Amino acid sequence: MKYIMRTCPNREEFSNYLNNKIPNLITCFDKDKDPVGNMKKAFKIAGNEEAIHLEDDAILTDNFIEKSNAIIKLYPDMVIQFFSMRKADLEKGSRMESGGNFTATVCFYTPPLMSQKLLNYFPFWKRWDEHPTGYDLTIADYLKATKQRYFLQCPNLADHRISKSIIGPRRSSMRISKTFKQK
Buried b vs exposed e over 133-148: b needs ≥16 C-beta within 10 Å? Predict the structure, then answer.
C-alpha cells in the first residue's frame, strides 16, 4: 500500500502531522502552484499499486492505518471514500454510492490499477475550463463513465482541518465531516 500526501509550500505543520501518523508516507510536493498537476503526479506515484491519497490538511482518526485496512479488506476492488460532508452520512451511515456522486479528495483509497486509469483519463476530461481544479469531479465522471460505484465509510476516518483553502481562498474554512471520530 502506498500512502501519498499532496502538499505545497508553507504547509509544513500540516504535513509534519501526517508524517507522524503514517511512517511510510510519500510526499507529493506542488512547487508550481498546480494542484491538478500535483494530483496527476500522485496518481503517477501510485502507478498500478493500491494507494491512499491524502491532502496535507487531513486529520486522521486514531489507528487510521489499521481502521482503513479493515475497510479496504472488505472492498479491495473499489474506490473508498474516507471523508465526506454529506447530511446523508448521519442518516444512512456507510454505504455504496454511485460513482458520479464522488466528491472531495481529502482522503480516499484507490485499488490496484485505478490510479493509473484515472491518470490516463485526465487528458480526456471535457470540463477543465468549467472546473479548473475539479479533479474530484474528474474521478466522479470516470467512475460514472465506467459504471463503477464506490464505498463511503462512516464514521469518516478522516476530517478536513479548519483552514483557508490554498486552491480557492473563497471556499469555506468549515469544510468538515459530520461523522468523524478521533478515536
Answer: ebbbbbbbbbbeeeeb
What's the fold here for domain 2-160? Spore Coat Polysaccharide Biosynthesis Protein SpsA; Chain A (3.90.550)
Give the whole-angstrom CA distance, residue 107 versus residue 53: 6
Cβ 83 vs Cβ 158: under 8 Å: yes
CA distance 19 to 26: 9
pLDDT along the chain (183 residues), means of 10: 93 91 95 90 97 96 98 98 96 97 96 97 87 86 97 97 63 74 89
For 31, the grid coordinates are 512547487
Q: Are 160 and 177 in contact (CB under 8 A)?
A: yes
